[in-house]
Amino acid sequence: MLRNRPDELVELYGELERYVKSLGPVEFVTRERYVLLRTRRIFTDLNVMTDALRIAIHLPEKMKHRLFIKIGGDRKQVTHVAKMRTASDLEAMKPFLRKAYEFSVA
Q: Domains along the chain?
């Protein structure tokens, strides 16, 4: 899934994976350029693009952040979509990833 991607994007994915693993047990399910992160249920989806990681974070409620390009939900969860290109983008998403992880194990 990271083959032929820029080094910066590979490093960003590595940072994301290390952070998510620090939250607790997580299963990474990969298919071509997609990654599902789950505990008892999926809490984040990733799409590895040519220049960014498109992340969909599943939260219990609607949140706001300048990086969110799309927000939609149903009765169970609200999905927040962002494109991460830099380490600072990942830093900004970490609190949301933590909240989504905690929501998925509750």
A: 7-105 (3.90.1150)
CA–CA distance from 76 to each of 55, 60, 105 (Å)? Answer: 19, 7, 14
Number of Cβ atoms within 10 Å of the Cβ of 94: 15
pLDDT band at residue 3 under the 50/70/90 scheme: confident
Query: 87 and 93 in contact (C-beta within 8 Å)?
Result: no
- Phi/psi of residue 26, each to 5°? -140, 140
45-98 tens-digit pLDDT? 999 999 999 999 999 999 999 999 999 999 899 999 999 999 999 999 999 999
CA distances from 11 to 18, 70, 89 (A): 11, 25, 13
Round to whole Å and give the CA distance between 96 and 66.
13
The DSSP symbol for 15 reads H
